[in-house]
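Order emerges. For instance:

***
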Amino acid sequence: MQSALLSLLLCAGLSYAWLPNFEVRGVNLGSQFIVEPWMASDEWNNMGCGNAASEFDCVSALGQSAANSAFQHHWDTWTTQQDIAQMKSYGLNTIRIPVGYWIREDLVYADSEHFPQGGLQYLERICGWASDAGMYIVIDLHGAPGAQVSGNPDTGQVSITKSLEVATGPKEVDSSMMSVRSNAY
């Protein structure tokens, strides 16, 4: 546990070193990689997720293959290169991209965790567009392993179990730190 906390502190120091030395004028790409039904209800319904409370529940209901198709279409169309160019034209210089740890499929327990697959290539594409436009990119680990806020779909899974805010076990801390390290490429 102490090593995980030390790693967090070190990451905080490194992230400070990477902060820009200019005024940040940014926008959040909400529901791009963690679709939040309250924020994008029409899109959620169009994807076939309907009454599903979270991405986990949607994938469970649709089945992996159908869910992958629905989410990949969403990732392909929710934010486009033209959107990035328009953001830049408004004087924005930063985008924040919330992601779940499951964007790295090697961190997912395939036998018990049901999340959409294939998102990493779309994340890389959006980052490429933003980078080409000269924008600063903040990738936010919005959904850590273990549904860090119980009953809250914005972490990818509505869980009635103890959440990370209440009971952080070694497995969740280790998985979260692995996710942070894996996504820091």
About this structure: The chain has one domain: 23-183. DSSP finds seven helices and three strands in the chain.
